[in-house]
Amino acid sequence: MNEGIVARRYVVTGRVQGVGYRNFVEHTAGKIHVAGYVRNRRDGSVEVFAMGPPEELLKLRKALERGPMMAQVGRVSEEPSEVEARYLGNFTVEFTE
Predict the structure, then answer these.
(1) pLDDT one-digit tens code per residue, 58-73
(2) Which of 24, 66, 82, 94 is the most buried (most CB within 10 A)?
(3) Which residues are known to be catalytic?
């Protein structure tokens, strides 16, 4: 059922809090049908956990690097992660970790 689905965890640094970044990520993920979540981190970065086909995650990463108009993305780090069934089928904005 979930063949071809992979998971990635991204950490985005720069001016990415208070500029609509999480809403931008939620909207983008919905458009390309990627599941997971986005949340602010206490260190000022934004964490994105995403699951989907590799080609869709590549589209998401390119959007993360661009960000919304008011953001200034410094860096996007990426690491493989485990698929988490509880996030399949939706993308949410979560509370700060």
Answers:
(1) 999 999 999 999 999 9
(2) 24
(3) 22, 40
CB neighbour list of residue 33: distance below 8 Å, 6 or more residues apart? 52, 56
| Cα(6)–Cα(83) distance, integer angstroms | 6
Helices (H), the chain: 21-32, 54-66
Q: Which CATH number fits domain 6-81: 3.65.10.10, 3.30.70.100, 3.40.50.10540, 3.40.50.1000?
A: 3.30.70.100
| DSSP SS3 for 72 | strand
Residue 10 contacts residue 36 (beta carbons within 8 Å): no
* Distances from the Cα of 28 to the Cα of 1, 9, 43, 57, angstroms: 24, 16, 24, 11
- Which tens digit of pLDDT belongs to each residue from 33-51? 999 999 999 999 999 999 9
